[in-house]
Every structure is written in C-alpha cells, then in structure tokens.
Amino acid sequence: MRLKIFRWKAIGPLLLLFAIIALVVVVFAEPIAHDTTEEASTELLGTQVDVGKLDLYPRKASVDLRALQIADPFRLTRNLLEADEIRLKLNPTALAEKKLVIEQLSLSGMRFGTTRKTPARPVEGNGFAPKILQAVDQWTKQFNVPLLSLTPIDTIRQLVLNPSQLTTVSQAQALLARTDSTRKALDQGFQQLNIRPTLDSAGALAQRLSATDPSKLGLDGTRQAIQSVQQTLRELDAAKNRVEQLEQSTRAGVQLLGQGAGMLDQARQKDFAFARSLLKLPTFSAPDIGNAFFGQVSIERFKQALYWAELAQQYMPPGLLPRPSPGPQRLRAAGHTIEFPREKDFPRFLLEEGLLDFSIGGTSAARGAYAATVRGLTSVPTLYGRPTVITANRRAAGSALAAIDVDAILDHVTTRTKDSASARLRGLKLPSFDIPGVPFRLDPGIGTSNLDFTMRGGGAQLYGRWAISSQQVRWSVDTAGRSLNDLERLVWRVVSGLSQLEVVAELGGAVASPRLSVRSNLDRAVSQRLQAVIGEEVARAERMVRAKVDSLVADKVEPLKRRIAVVQTEANARIRAERQRLEQVEQQLQAELKRLSGGLVPGIQLPKIKL
Amino acid sequence: MLTLLKLIQSMIKTLHSEGTPGQVAAGIAIGSVLGLTPLLNLHNLLIFSFVVLLNVSFGGAMLGWALFVPVGFLLDPVFHAVGLELLQAPSLRPLWSTLTNTPLIPYTNFNNTVVLGSFAGWMLLSVPIFFAARYGVARYRATIGERVRQSRFYRAVTASQAYNWYRMFRPG
C-alpha cells in the first residue's frame, strides 16, 4: 500500500484555524497593543506612561494614541508631558522585519509639567531605567554640599573629644608598632651581617705581615703572602657589599617611618576638621554659603539632565556590533535577545521625523506659537549616520510666559559620544524651593533660567551650567516649629532685603568624580554680615578646637617622632662604625701588599676596592 | 488534574489509533518542538500546520507537545547557553544578520537565546525521539495493547465527543 504524505482533507480546518487566529488578532490587537505600549514605554523610560486610547490603522500603517501622559520620574505628582493626540506613521517594510520605523510623528494638545490626578507609580524592577534612576540618586550623594549652620555661638558647648575618634591617634599607634618592628629588623640585620670574623682574620694577617721581612720570605713565600692578602681583601670587599645592602634596606625602612610621620600631620588636619564639625560652628565663608543655599537645588537640575543622558547612552549605543538585551517576560526563561544591525538596513527603532507646530490663542498665559522637532531618534545611531536633533521653542510676545528654547543633540554615531542639551526659559515663573538647614523658602518669581549640559565619552567628561536670574524674589520664613535664633534673624534681615537673585552653578569633572561650584549674589552679602558679627568668636572657637586636638594627640605623636629619629640616628651610626672598621683593616692590608710586592713583582695589579 | 486526564486520554487514543508506529512516532517527534520551544512564536504556527497537513499522527503530536513541555522548562538554562553560543559565534554572524533583516523571520524570535537553543536542541533530539517512540509504540501494541483495548476504561475514553474530532485527523 502506498503511504500518503499529505492529508489534503485537513486544509479546510487549517484555513479555518488561520481565519480564527486572524479574527482574534483583529479583535484583540488594539487592547494588546495598548497594554504593550504602556508596559514597554514605562519600562523603557523608567516612569509611568499612560495611554488613554490606542487605534490601529493597518491600511495606512499608522497608529493613533490619545490622552498620553508621561510622568516625571523625579516628581511623581507631575507629568513631564501630556498630549491629547499622537499620530505615528509607520514604515510597513520595516514592520515586516519587526522594526519600528516612524516616518512621521505628529502631536497635538501638548502640555508640559501638568499636575497628575493620581501620583504615578514608581517604576521598580531590574530594568535599565530603574537601575539608572538608582545610579543617578547615588551619584548625587557624591557631592559634599555643606548644610548652612547658624548655631548661635553662645550655645556652643565644651568640646568633648574621645581620643579613639581621632585618626591621628590610631595612625600614631600603627606607626609606633611599625617603628618597633623596623628597629627589630635592623637589629637582626646587623646580627646577620657577621663581619667580625672577617675583620679579626684580616687584622691578624696584617699584624703577621707587618712583622715579616719580605727579603727573607723568598719568591714562593712572597707570592703566598700576596695571595693571602688578595684573598682577604676579596673577603673584605664582600663584607663591605653586605654592609652596603644593609644600609640600603635601613634607609628604605627609615624613609617609610619618615613618611608615616608626615601622614600624621595630614591626619591632624582631618581631626581639626572633624572636631570643628562637632562644634557646628556657623558657616560664614562665601563659597560655603553659595553651596549651602543653592547646591542641592542645582544638583537636582543636573541629576535630571544626567538621567536622560544616561538613558540615551543605554538605548542608543554606538557601533554595529551585536548587542544583547533581556528577552521578553514569559513563563519560560526570558534568555537574551540579540540584535544584529546591518548597514543599509533599518534599525530596530527609528523616529525619522517628529513635528509639532501649533499655537494657543486667546488671552491665557499659555498663549503663543509652539514648535518642536525630533529628528533621527534611533536605537542604532551608527546605522542612521547622523546625530539625533531635538528642538522645541515657544514664542509669545506680550504674554507673561515669554519664551522657551530647548535644543539637544545626541551624537552617538561613533564611540566618541557627545550628548548636549541647552534650555533657555525667559519670563517664566520659576519654581520656589526651601533653603536647606534654615527655615527659609525662596520664591524666585518670574525670571530666566538657563541650563546647559554636556556629557562626553559616556560620562568621562561632564559639563553643566545652571543659572537663574530674577528681579522679583520673595522670601518667606517658616517659624511654625520654632523661633529664629539671633544668627538666623541676622541672615533673614540680609536676604529678605534682597529682591534680586543671580545664581550660577557649574558642574565639571566626570560622572565618577563630579565637581560642583555655586555662586550667587547672596553669598558675599550674607558672608560679610556674618563675618562682622561672629568672625572673632568663630576664630576663637577654632583655636580652641586646635588646642584640644593638639593636647590629645601631642603625647602620642611627639614621643613617636623622637623614637623614629633615634632609630634613624642609631642605624646610621652603626653602619658608619662598621664601615670605618672595614676601611681601617683594608688600608693596613693594602699597605702590607705594597710593601711585599714593592720592586719584586712588578706589574702586579692591586685589587681595587670600591669604598 | 484535568490536564493529566487529557494527557492520559490523548495517550490511550494515540497508542490505539490506526496509525502505524512510525506515524505515531513522527507525530510525537514533530509535536515535541511545541513543548521544547517557547510556544508563542511564529515557527510554532508552521510546525502546527505541518502536523495537520502531513500524514502523521495528530494525537502523537499532541502527546509529544504535552510530554515535552516540562522537559522544555527543565532544559531552559541549557537552551539559553546553546543559543548564546550560536548567536555569538562569529562565523554565524552573517547568517543571523541576514535573517534579522528578512521580512517575517524576526517574528520567529530566532535571535532569542532560549528560542534558538531549544529549536537547535529539538533538531538534535527529534531523530532519537522518533526512533524511541516508534520502538515504544510497537512494543506496547505487541504486549498489553489488546488487553487495554478490551477494558472499560478504553471504551469510556473513546466514547467521548472529543474522539470524534480526533478521528478526523487520524492517520489514513
């Protein structure tokens, strides 16, 4: 019987099955795409993304998103962006290759910084974005922003210091132990040197020869005597080498002890700073005041810029090498999904052009002409070959909100990546903030705010500048919890009289080691006033701190330094003595050798001993 | 429990079907890919079409699927390692690049380590699975098959409505 390979009668049910699958796709595609879009974009951006409605238009290869909300990852009660409608025109060829190439994106009804009805959920998990958010939070902790301290001088208590808290004491104890072990090692070295037998035999030989008349020794006797002298000189030479080696190791050991003593002075400076911090002395140096007033708020601005730059680094890596990413979440293991970008093909994601151009009329504060463009936002910048360019601006003559200009360029085409962004806001109501450490709140009112941020080489170089300027500053003080002390009242009088504010914060260095400097027009005013009132008393308190630290460490450090000096002197003296003895015997032997060989054995080269 | 009962039902029906041991074994071997690889991928739709269109035991394929699901879960770490090796092999990179940029192929998720590793694992295991299944079915039918066929249990299983559907796809 001939075996049939195909089951032709099954074609009908199979086609029916495909039809059912197609029907299921048509019915459920939109809800699935809606949920997937929310889930994927929340994970990608590290902040809650809500989509009110999603409509698919397969024939036009386009997608409509309505009521889009992207929460601010740093303030969960606020939206970064809200849009009534977003229309995406997709490239169908790319879609067939499971790639998302957005040929055109248009938005309408955009609003920024709106308040959310319900706070966004913080994004957790092991995705890139939550990790970057954590890393950026960690990054902000690297800055040593001083807290403004306005403790009244009369409340500074007697300084109580425990010696065990001081670095100098612990370092002195460690150095003492090292000094003792160095001394023991030197003693052992001298014992192992063992040059006495060599000196004794050389001395005896010199004495014996001095009593000998070379003319009575004969040729053989003279030759033997010369050979004995030469042999002994070689032994002396070896002994001198051993002394030299010991001298070198002694010098190294003593040098280390000297360095340790130097470190003690540095440790003492740290202890001064530590003891000073215990007193909580009032801050009155101008740079410290600038940092204390505006350091934290500046870091917050730079932190947000760094977060988006780090996300860009993660999602837009340069190069065309295969790149793994975690696979999809499912019951089975997720594994890794590896992308294989290829020249002249579509990248996995590309937003070719996004255009936003609309205006708000009427008399509201938000009226004006808005325009924004996004070009070349892609997951494989090397394939696209051009940097991503983002611009947004708003013009509204006569409106309370004057102008906003935002420009960003993300250049990840080569490995020398550069992310730069600048935002210029003019005539805008700037957000108010608390001054850390004191119950003051600053409301800059309407002013200008400029932020420039550049990150090169994935964080190897950072540059940031944030400046705010306002002529209508208002200060408020919260005395609900307690009343202001004298110093706080003094500072309050200074700041509340100022209606102008100029702050410039600059960020430099690298992501791993950032530097921040902040200056403002308040620094000098507050500093001079405080200096005049409390300068002398603070200086006296500082002298007290120094005296206290000195009294606690002096009995540990000074004897130790003397001990180190004694070890050094002793070691040098012993080496000098050993060397002198060797040289003395050697000179005697050289003289005897000269006497023995004088005229009898011409041309004998006396061994040269380097001393 | 229901799944287990279904599995037993499927097994009984398949072992006593009119298909030859070779057809049942081929069904099991092809169906095992549905269990070994993550299910929701395009290639499994193709495999399912083969099961329906080719003259192999449909019950065998369902049995193979059910039997190899737990094996798939157990071997996931191995599949991941195999898939990673294959996807990272420099000599295969041009092939993967071409497939990534070929329409529809990326929907198979071949560039996922577990999917590729499990599919490669199935390609290796399918031949041993086929021969082992063919031997097992033949031995079963030659030994206890007839006694089971006479049992009430077998009659109860084969009397169900589902059996009528099954008959439609039994090997001819």
Helix content of chain A: 40-55%
Mean pLDDT of chain B: 84
**Gyration radius of chain A, rounded:** 41 Å
With helices defined by DSSP (H or I, 4 residues minimum), what is the helix count of chain B?
9
Largest sheet of chain A: 13 strands, mixed
Sheet/helix structural class of chain B = mainly alpha
Overall body shape of chain B = elongated
Order of helices and strands of chain B: HHHHHHHHH
Largest sheet of chain B: none
Question: How far is it from the N-terminal to the C-terminal residue of chain B, by CA?
Answer: 32 Å
> Biggest chain pair contact, residues each?
A-B, 34 and 39 residues
Beta-strand content estimate of chain B: under 5%
Low-confidence stretches of chain A: 599-603
Determine the mean pLDDT of chain A. 82
Question: Whole-number radius of gyration of chain B?
Answer: 18 Å
The structural domain count of chain B equals 1
Tell how many strands the DSSP assignment of chain A holds: 18
Per DSSP, what share of the residues of chain A sits in E-state strands of 2 or more residues? Answer: 25-35%
Structural class of chain A: alpha+beta
| Assembly state | heterodimer
